[in-house]
Design brief:
This protein is of the alpha/beta class and 455 residues long. Helices cover 36% and strands 22% of the residues. Strands 1-5-4-2-3-6 form a six-stranded mixed beta sheet, sandwiched between helices. Helix 3 (80-90) packs across helix 5 and helix 8 packs parallel to helix 9 (286-294). The protein is globular, with a radius of gyration of 22 Å. 52% of the residues are buried. Bound molecules: magnesium ion. Residues 100-101, 241, 243, 245-246 line the site of magnesium ion (MG).
């Protein structure tokens, strides 16, 4: 079974996001805290990334939660997966103040359930309803919650990863770490050092103005990291987004590792350890399915969004299925024996472990052994998304079509995914094919059929 996608009013795929002071005010964040406290009881963990607005908004969400009688444990600055790890073990819920990969002027809130996963659509709709109908229930003056400070809890997350890799597998491996001035400054260098790696750090001082690069770990933004990997002779470089639930890599030659290749390399390793199922959105590159099937494993596809992946993984495990791995083709990988959420620190540690398990091979060698695929991505500006998608279903009626999220058209060894954005007048296209020639032909045919329907 796969989690279905429901459109929400306030929350997007990964929480609420907006420009601070404009779309995202302390008042809104207070209301979110109050709604969360109304829905839950007990003790809620709160954390934040390094954004300049983080302190204000953390105080707002805490005030909302405390007003309803829930207690709050403030874990301070830490990666989103660190807060999720702590919530899973010890709390009744969590609220993370972060805008992930968005620029510095943005911030947001991710709500975490007691099992460590992000709040699902059904519960989020209830939370939104409380906010829009002003039906939160603050407690009387003598029944408000208590706040506790616990910045030391981040240590539990670090040891929770390091303890999975005993015997210092990182000995002899040099890694350049780029936490991008975000909360991973406190975690990834420590994790890799304790695994035995030699560490070089760039953008390693926490700073919400992000002076070295933007929170999105893009090819352009990681040029300094790539140069440092080459000049230092490191084995690889790793960079995180603004809340370190994603990790992307630079190989020893200074080349950016496309995230579907990263996913495929880790998936291949996980499948070789144990046969089972991998869960991923329909947008993930075909390369992941190819390596999984080669190792005798299967794939379950979900709508686009890590929350659908995480919750589907958890449900499948609940049904007794062997779910070994999951994630997205953007560097957001989920290790279910560790926790049911994307984890950039864990992904960094796993990359060290995979390299150490292949002595004599460089990261570029391992990537070079993966099958080759060609991915073409494009987006078209149009308000007619739903109409165009409908017309494509009949235009490609001879082909197999999947409608898990948007439409995915399969032809021979290729596919095209066409999705209309829920928030912008944009249609996103991905073509995944064996080679560029086949991909271009498929893309031209698709584009012709879309143009017929664009006003
Ligand atoms: Mg993120």
């Amino acid at each position: 079974m796969t989690e279905k996608k429901i459109q929400k009013r306030l929350f997007g795929t990964n929480g609420v996001r907006g420009v601070v002071g404009k779309d995202l005010t302390p008042e809104l964040v207070f209301n979110i805290g109050e709604a969360l406290g109304t829905m839950r009881s007990g003790c809620i963990a709160v954390g934040r990334d390094t954004r300049t607005s983080g302190e204000t908004l953390t105080k707002a969400v805490k005030a909302g939660i405390l007003a309803t009688g829930c207690d709050v444990v403030d874990c301070g600055i830490l990666p989103t997966p660190a807060l999720q790890f702590l919530v899973k073990d010890d709390f009744d819920g969590g609220a993370m103040i972060t805008a992930s990969h968005n620029p510095p002027e943005y911030n947001g809130v991710k709500i975490i359930e007691s099992d460590g996963t992000e709040m699902g659509d059904e519960e989020t709709l209830k939370l939104e309803e409380i906010i829009f109908t002003h039906s939160a229930s603050p407690n009387a003056w003598n029944q408000t919650g208590q706040e506790f400070l616990a910045p030391h809890l981040i240590e539990n997350y670090i040891s929770g990863i390091v303890d999975q890799f005993p015997d210092k597998p990182g000995a002899g491996i040099t890694v350049v770490v780029d936490p991008g001035s975000g909360p991973a400054c406190l975690t990834t260098p420590r994790i890799l050092t304790e695994m035995g790696c030699k560490i070089i750090i760039i953008n390693g001082i926490m700073d919400g103005s992000f002076p070295g690069r933007l929170p999105e770990p893009s090819v352009d933004g990681l040029k300094s990291l790539a140069e440092l990997v080459v000049s230092s002779g490191a084995d690889f470089g790793v960079a995180h987004d603004g809340d370190a639930d994603r990790a992307v890599f630079i190989n020893e030659k200074g080349q950016f590792v496309e995230e579907n290749l990263e996913f495929a390399l880790v998936a291949q390793y996980m499948c070789q350890q144990k046969r089972g199922t991998i869960v991923t959105p329909v947008s993930t590159g075909q390369i992941v399915e190819i390596v999984a099937k080669k190792e005798g494993c299967s794939i379950v596809y979900t709508p686009v969004g890590s929350i659908y992946v995480a919750r589907t993984m958890r449900e499948l495990r609940g049904e007794g299925k062997i779910v070994i791995f999951g994630g997205e083709g953007n560097g957001g990988l989920i290790f279910p024996d560790h926790q049911f959420c994307r984890d950039g620190g864990m992904t960094s540690a796993m990359m060290v472990f995979i390299l150490s398990s292949n002595p004599g091979k460089k990261l570029s060698d391992l990537l070079g052994e993966l099958p080759e695929r060609c991915i073409i991505k494009d987006k078209i500006t149009s308000r007619d998304g739903p109409k165009i998608l409908k017309s494509l279903i009949s235009a490609f009626s001879e082909d197999t079509i999947d409608q898990t999220d948007g439409i995915k058209i399969f032809r021979d060894n290729s596919w095209a995914l066409i999705r209309a954005s829920g928030t912008e007048p944009i249609i996103r296209i991905i073509i995944d094919s064996e080679n560029r020639q086949v991909g271009q032909a498929f893309y031209s045919e698709l584009k012709d059929k879309i143009n017929l329907n664009i006003k």
